[in-house]
Amino acid sequence: MSEADELFGIAEVSAAIGLEPDTLRYFERQGVVPSPRRDGAGRRQYATADVELIRMLVHLRETGMPLADIAQFTGADGKAADPARLRVELLTAHRRRIHDRREELDRALDVISRKIADFSDRMTSPEDLLERPDCTIAYGVQGEGPLLFLVGAPVGRAGFAALALELAGRFTVVTHDPRGIGASRAVPGMAAPTPEVLAEDLAALVDRFTGGPALFAGTSGGAVTLLELGKRHPDMVGRAVLHEPPLVSLLEDADLAARAAAAFGVAEADPQRAVQEFFDLSGAAHRTGPDQTPPAPMALPALPAEELDKNRYFLGRIAGPTVFYAPDVEAVRRVPVTLCAGSLSHHQMARRATRALADLLELPLIDMPGNHLGASAEPAEFARALEPLLAPLEP
Q1: CA pair distance 132, 179, nearest whole angstrom
Q2: Among 94, 210, 309, 351, which residue's Cβ finds the most Cβ atoms within 10 Å?
Q3: Do 268 and 319 contact (CB within 8 A), yes or no?
Q4: Which residues pair with 140 in a beta bridge?
Q5: Running DSSP on this structure, what letter comes out for residue 334?
Q6: 220: alpha, beta or left, given left = phi > 0 and alpha = psi -120 to 50?
Q7: Global pTM?
Q8: CA dihedral defined by 233, 239, 243, 249, rounded to 10 degrees?
Q9: What is the DSSP code string of 242-274?
Q10: What is d(CA 177, CA 189) in angstroms, rounded to the nearest whole number?
């Protein structure tokens, strides 16, 4: 008997696939799998094709396909006029469900990772304060080695905590909460958090540690802060790695610019709507490779009051000056910068903008792990990719 003709009993199939015999019998009774042939004594006999079919349905079941759809897929219901077409339709619909579920899980994982990192940071990196003329900036220091500033906007110490822990074995890592974020709370009379103001806050923090050049890694709005720091204080920048500065100003896309401005315009009165609109136009939470189509817009859940207040400030005050910031290209040429973007950020606003900046500066665009949120969502992988980009400069 050839391997193709080999027959297996229910116990052998159960052991090979990891399903209890009673579960196999249940699927058969429910019409999820076709009934196998029987031997003279009435015992089930499964062919190799039967086993592979059952193995496939296990994958479908584990990923949440309804049993009725599985029954149609296997052909056990015997009603399909065109089984191949039906299977393609069922699998396409199921792939969409899995993709949506993965998006939800990725967002949940990011929140959980940031909370773990936040609590870890509180244990390992005590909070220090930097007094500015119109506010107080909270910052933390950990590790040993060359001085490295991790810069975000609106991301602060909590968002960088896991990445900072990964880098602390090689660098003295400084993280801070930009004005109005985290422990650097907004106060009456505080200057607006424009890239120019945030760059001066960062320069004051650098002065607290060193009079010479330092290393910097900035993500999203923090990368825009570093562009302005390089213009105002080029001697401070030993090397700056810029990850996805979301510069709508560099994209010849009037519709995108109008949608962004509209989202920022409603942030104070309707932050839930602003978050939804910015989520849709930025695509920053999605994971899209170069050959993948961005997913269709999806409704976000209602945000808790605390998140709504944060986004009133972020989208209402920080985001507009950041995404519409016009970099001084000639000034940027005079400082050592490296441009990078998420390997899963293709077709998204921030990667497109970073590509445009790279073209203006005639610099390569280096892929980094994950998407726009890679620094917080995949800190270990991101740190491994970041370290070579921060290697000491040639004398």
Answers
A1: 10
A2: 351
A3: no
A4: 175
A5: T
A6: left
A7: 0.73
A8: 40
A9: EE----GGGS--HHHHHHHHHHHHTTTT-HHHH
A10: 18
